[in-house]
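Tutorial, part two.
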Amino acid sequence: MANFHDFTVQTIDGDEQSLGAYAGKAALVVNVASRCGLTPQYEGLEALYRSYSQRGLTILGFPCNQFMEQEPGTDAEIKGFCTSKFDVTFPLFSKLDVKGDAQSPLYAYLTSQATEPDPAGEVAWNFAKFLINAEGEVVGRFNPQVEPADPVLTAAIDAALP
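Running the prediction step on this input gives:
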């Protein structure tokens, strides 16, 4: 795969989605979980989405149950939780593996890219963030503790906007 836009993934509703649909936009890709100490970041991610979506940013949430089984629900349960508890309107996708033998091809690509401020390598925990520019290149990676409103992250987003 040449870049982010070359991948196809499954939406949380079970449909196939080409990430090429996001060409021309910046994207923040986040592996999410509903039962994690960082789960309140959903609120900040939604606020970021609502603030930046008109400027060309999308946020893509990928549920993952690999970290202390903190995302055990079905896709329907995850969607229900996200919409009822945090009023999430950004796109959510089907649960996937972000590391290990069953790592999704998308995350194999994301974690192999040289990035700043965090380097390439395995995802360490829920709510790791990858910033993709409008051309589909990984231009930033931020550890899970970086809040969505963190000035370092928002500055990187501003720089990646089309």
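The longest strand covers residues 26-32. In part three we will examine how such features are distributed along the chain.
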